Amino acid sequence: MPNRRFDEASLPRFDSSPSVILVSGAIDFFVEEAAEKVAEALAAEGAERLRFDDEASPEAVTDALLNRSLFSPRRVVELDATPILGTEAPGELFDAALASWQDATPSGRRDAFRQARSLLAALRLEGGADPDETAAAVARKLKKPDAAAAFAELLRQLPEGKAVTSLIVPALQTILGRGNDGVIALLTAVQPPKGVELFGEIGKKGLVLEVAGEERETAAALARYARARAEERDVAIEKNAIEKLIAQTGARSEIFASELAKLFEWAGKGGAIQAEDVRVLVEDETSENLYAFYDVLARRDAGAALSQLERILSGHPVVMGEKEIDTEEYWPIRFLSLLAGEIRRMLLMRERLDDPAAGYSVGMSSSAFQNRVLPRLKEMDRGAERQLASGHPFAVYKLAERAARYRTEELVAALARAADVDVQLKNSIPPLAALSAYVGSVIAGD
User: Fold this and answer.
1) Torsion over CA of 135, 82, 28 and 368, rounded to 10 degrees?
2) Residues 359, 403 share a domain
3) Taking a C-beta distance cutoff of 8 angstroms, is the pair 293, 301 a contact?
4) Which of 20, 62, 161, 249 has a CA that sits 20 to 30 A from residue 224's CA?
């Protein structure tokens, strides 16, 4: 059954639904809100609802999935599947685990163990098996044979934990295979990577409902989100401030959520946020910001990247940070030059992050990056072709975050292809067609 966009007007009904439904999206609030509407629709004809939180044992979840209800012919089992599916692709988790392991500090080892467990769950492998065999299987699946020995060393030290994959994942696969016989698993996940096998199986045999993420949300939904988060954080936020934030973020849900979180940090517990605070502290996103485009490119989200590219080339105001860019004369060619320059910076940064001395791990916080990695990058800057660590610390952190999502060879190939696109643009090939094909190939790693 193909994935489809969540639509409140056509919610699934129990008897006509597959045995596993996954509600996924970029923001947990909207995912949970959508999942509640799906659960209500499934239970409308008297189905029993069982909701499991993070503290539930795998045995209890498995029992609920595999056995029929004693009290109703229909059962809905609700579960957050983010810990099973993860939020990073297996290859990224593998690289992150090895980088954290090389850190050799207690916090680094804890990060490595967490990342390794998430990787094993994503690949449906168990940490308790022979470390050498498991590491070889992981390296084979990810096509990284040279790193098998290092990962085996990590696995030999991996403490025993909850064997989530040995229970819940096979149970989900079982009910996927047998279909809806009175039990439906209703799963939620925030930004599940498409490289995880279970995600693919649910897409083929179950139903994936995708909640709006990068797209523009309705003002009412964003206001509801802001009020709910403000109550959780014990922060007062004026109605006018919410409206101002919606306007300045262009009603884009991910940007809205990110800026709202920053405002909460600024206000602090018991504080207040007014419209003037939003005006001063939040960048106006009604213009197309190239940095935002670079972030989407780094997330390898083709749909969002191509949508933003169309707006960038359509005459909308375009900025880089606070600086507005002239988009009049030869704009497509100048845009390609800017994009190629960013890819080159990503390539240079990726080469430095590949050096174990950098100490970088995927997913690390900005503060950890500034304390542990930035000083090492500044050392690498000495005598280097180009200074990468001399800018604002957060800008350097974002560049590293973008670079880490691509392999070195992918960036090399992308940079080489830019010359061909430049020729196409100068030969009157339609700019949107030429640049869309180029951006698509960069994201795909072709």
Assistant:
1) -30
2) yes
3) no
4) 20
The more confidently predicted of residues 123 and 175 is: 175
* Structural domain that includes position 275: 219-281
Lowest pLDDT segment from 235-239, 252-256, 425-429: 252-256
Q: What is the C-alpha separation between 22 and 3, in angstroms, rounded? A: 10
Contact 439, 418 (CB under 8 A): no
* Alpha helices (H) along 387-446: 393-403, 408-426, 431-444
Evaluate whether 305 touches 442 at the Cβ level (below 8 Å).
Answer: no
Pair 200, 228 in one domain: no
Query: Would you report the helix, strand and coil content of the chain in percent, each value rounded to 5?
Result: 60, 10, 30
Strands (E), 118-276: 183-190, 207-210, 236-237, 272-273
What is residue 166's predicted lDDT score, i.e. its pLDDT? 54
Work out the angle between the directed axes of helices 197-205 and 164-178 (0-180°, nearest 10): 20
Which residue is associated with the tokens 């990695």?
373
Beta strands in 259-351 (DSSP E): 272-273, 288-289, 318-320, 323-325
What is the domain count for the chain?
3
How many other β-carbons are positioned within 10 Å of the β-carbon of residue 65? 24
Residues 165 and 150 in one domain: yes
**H or E element at residue 142:** helix 131-142
CATH number of residue 238's parent domain: 1.10.8
The structure tokens listed for 7 are 């639509």
Which domain CATH number covers 187? 3.40.50.300
Distances (CA, A) of 347 to 176, 306, 388, 400: 42, 22, 11, 10
pLDDT band at 111 (very low <50, low <70, confident <90, very high): confident
**Degrees (nearest 5) of the Cα angle 416, 421, 423?**
105
Dihedral Cα 36, 42, 45, 46, nearest 10 deg: -70
Which residues face 186 on adjacent strands?
Answer: 21, 78
In this structure, are 295 and 331 located in the same domain? yes
Q: Are residues 205 and 261 in the same domain?
A: no
* This prediction's pTM: 0.50
Q: Do 352 and 377 contact (CB within 8 A), yes or no?
A: yes
Task: Say how far apart CA 231 and CA 196 lie, in whole Å.
Answer: 35
